[in-house]
Structure formats: C-alpha cells, structure tokens
Amino acid sequence: MHWQRFPFIVLGVALELAGCGDDDGLIAEGSTSRGPAVEPGNDESGFQPPDAACGNGWLDADEQCDDANEEDRDACSNACQIPCGLEATFVRLPPTPTSEIDATDVIVDPSGGIVILGPEREITTDQQDNETAGPLVAFAIAYTTEGEVRWEAQLADEDGRDVIPTRLAEDTQGGIYVGATVETEDGGTDIVVRKIDGNSGETLWEHRHGEPIEASNDVLTGLAFSPGIAPDGVPSMIASGQIRAGEGDDDVWVRKLDLASGEPIWTATWTGTLGAGFSTDDGGPIAVAADGTSLVLAAEYLDFETQVIRLLRFGAAGEPPAAAIPIGPTDGIQEFQPIDLSVDASGQILAVYRRQVASGPQSFLDQLDPTGAVLWSKTEADFAGVGGETWTISGARPTPSALVLLAGGFTSTEFDGAAYLALWLARLDAQGGSLCRVEHREPAEGPVPPSLAPSAVTSTSTGEALVVARRVDNGDPSLWLGRFRDVVLPDAPP
Asked: What pLDDT digit, counting tens, does each position of 437-482 carry?
C-alpha cells in the first residue's frame, strides 16, 4: 500500500485567517501580519529583517502569523499561531495513481488514537493503457497521535461486489465498528456492521441484514454506542438505516446489536405519512442520549416535491417514537437531506441537514434541547467568507469544553477563475456565538491549488479538531486528514 505521511508539525503556509467572530469578545477580528520574502541585504534599500522571533512583526519560519503585539487572544497568539489553526496533515495515497479513494468518517478510539474510514477502488493500467477497475472496498485505518500506522482493515465482498462504507463507532472497551452498505446478487443492497479489535484490526464478528424483498435497497446510515441503560443495562451498538418495506415503500430502521456476538437485541422501524399507500422515507445518522434514547435524524416523504427533516426518538428498549419532531424551515423548497447528528452528556443535540436549490446546496445547523426544541440555528451564510461560493456544512460535534465544533467546504475561484474546493472550520460557544473561524487551502504547486472536499469532523479529548476530506490534485485523489488546534478561552473571572 502506498503511503505518504507528513509528521505532526505546524504547516502554516496553506492557512488563511478568514475572520474571527466578536460575539463574546474572546477573539477580535483581525488579519495576520506576513512579512515579504526578503533575504537580508537583498533589496536595494539594504533593509535587514529583524532576528527571527515571535512578536517582531515579521513572518518567520514555523510562524502562521506575527502581529507584533502581546495580546494572546486576538487573531494571532503569542506563539505566532492562528487560533483554531492547522497543526498537522496526513495524506494516504491510493494503491495506484489512477485508483479512487475517499474518506467518509473519523473517530478517536479509547486509547487516544485515530481511526479513519473510507472507500477505495483499485484501478490498474496495462501497457496498452487499458484500465481494469476492481470493486469498491471499505477500509479502516488506525494510527497513533504521532502519525504511525497501527493497523489497517479491509471490508470487501467475497463475490467482488461494491462495499460502500458509511460510519465508524467505538465502544469503551477498545472495539471499533464499521458500518457499510453492500451490493447483492439480485441488484439490491444489504446493511453490514463489522466489529474490529481496536488493538490489532482483526475482525471479531460481522452482522448482515437484508430484507427478503427482491432487489431490496437496504442502506446503513448511522452507528452509535449505547453504554448500557435500563431496562437491560447491556452495552451495545445501535445501527440506523432505511429498509424496503414494500413496493415503493421505505422505512427508517434501527437495530440494537450485542457487543460480544453481534446478535440483534431488538429492532424498530418507523414510517412516515402514507401517500397513495407508500412513503419513501430516508434514514439518517444516529446518536444515543445518556438515558439510552436512540435519536435518528430522518427525512420524511410527503409528496414528490416535499421531503422534510424529522427527529425520531426511539426508547431504550426499542419503543417506536411517540411523535416525529419537525425540524427546519418551512419556507421555499422542502427537499431536505439529513447529514449529521450528535448529542452531548447534558442532552444537547446538534443536527446538520441540507437542501438543494437552484443556486446550489443550502446547509443548516440546529442546536436542540433534550425535548427536541430548537435553541438556536445557523446556516452556511453565517460562516461564508469572501472569495468563495456554494458554502456547505459537513458536520458538527460537541467538544470536551462544551463548545460546538463544525466544518464544511466551499468553492473558490480566486486563481484565474479556475474553481477548486477548500474547507473551513469554526468553533461556537454554547449559545451559538462565534469564537473563531479559519479557512484552509492546500499549497498550490501548479496554477490551481488541490481541491479538498471535507466529509466528517470530530473532536479529540483535548479539544483539537480532526477533519477528513477527499483531496484531488491535478486529477489524482488521496485521503486527507487535518488536525486543528483548540480555541484559547479567557481565564475565568476571580
């Protein structure tokens, strides 16, 4: 396997400060101070740059900024680093230059290591330039915080059919879980959940679900760990998805799996409003609250032009939702798609969803209380910067310090009108106020920088942000991981 690893060091050349919010005054708006690339004595004036040191107002090696002041919580810290800025990157190359690779999820395992999930298709070329494409396979790769590979596991279909990875999850005992959708012989798809030993990458068990309906399209959409809440008190893995319930009729599906064996403990489904006898509802991501409730962000089909977002609450014993909680605006186009869902220890919920309109995708982020009531909402317009368009939110997560971490992408045309993708990252306080925000563009070796399409974000136990993305440089794809530092909060008042 072809690997390329960049050590975990600060990489400041590709990071641009896009502005920091002043909702709470923690970090004032500002810009980095970058000195020109002048070697001592090389210009006609004989100007000699000052000795390298943070605070001299000159951009020295390993500095991301230098604003020549001693304010540590403005747009440039006293370590000459951008708040929330990039600390390190990691790139995984595909098996061959023509092969395909992507990233779908990232988690931090109980040992503090990092696990990434993605799909990969090996494409080989013979001497006559004839290409041979293999099946799509899922891979999970684990590595240490220093960037050393610990293990790699592959989920491939024994009959050579495509495997589409979706989600990762972890338990508290070192188990890693991969959720995927697998093509079937009759042209449909099955749901697969595989447990992996977090120390070795060895497969411990695999659970597969497929409806008996011919060519049934059953799709996995989420995985979440349940620590063991009454009535059974058994730690488990909860999978979500959508299954074919009948001709033209799809239901939201949730199943609780035993951690030791992968055997089902209970299964629950939900169907939306029936129109003409069917409802093609879409399952979505799942999160488990502290009381054992399984929360699912789903899309309910109402008619050919209306698909609305619903928050579903399944009981700890698999009880179906008493009601579907409506989320999202009711104005304009109502064709929504669930993107991401998480819940913190206090029961606060983060829901990300999207809709497609004529001008492009529109993204939404809601924070909900434990009952599903909206506390505050954001759209991509709250984070859009200058020099870009088609801004999207890819995911949101709570952090250990009770803040909100979110990331997304946008299209930039700043290089002679040639479009490429870049990513942005922001941190919000518990009330949705902006603490900091950065944009990241990859270094450009050619006329246009490589594109980055982010897919997932998570937080480490120390508050750092991890973002995974598909990186494409001159047509060549790779998997990209970026690690971004935490925001510096002010000292508590005496």
From this structure: 999 999 888 888 899 999 999 999 999 999 999 999 989 999 999 9
> CA-to-CA distance for 432 and 53, rounded, in angstroms?
36
Sign, Cα dihedral of 111, 400, 469, 343: positive
How far apart CA 286 and CA 252 sit, in angstroms, is 11
Quick one: tokens of 305?
């032009």
How does DSSP assign 255-314, residue by residue?
Answer: EEEETTT--EEEEEEE----BTTB-B-B---EEE-TTSPEEEEEEEEEETTEEEEEEEEE
Backbone φ and ψ for 461, nearest 5 degrees, come out as -65, -20
Q: State what percent of residues in the chain have pLDDT above 70.
A: 85
What Å distances lie between residue 368 and 220, 224, 292, 339, 430, CA to CA?
24, 19, 17, 16, 11
Q: Which residue has the tokens 């959508």?
A: 242
Query: Residue 16: is its pLDDT beyond 70?
Result: no
Q: Exposed/middle/buried for 302, CB within 10 Å: 0-12, 13-18, 19+?
A: middle
**Strand-by-strand arrangement of the 434-440 sheet:** 15-17, 434-440, 418-428, 404-415, 388-398
Contact 462, 485 (CB under 8 A): no
pTM of the shown model: 0.85
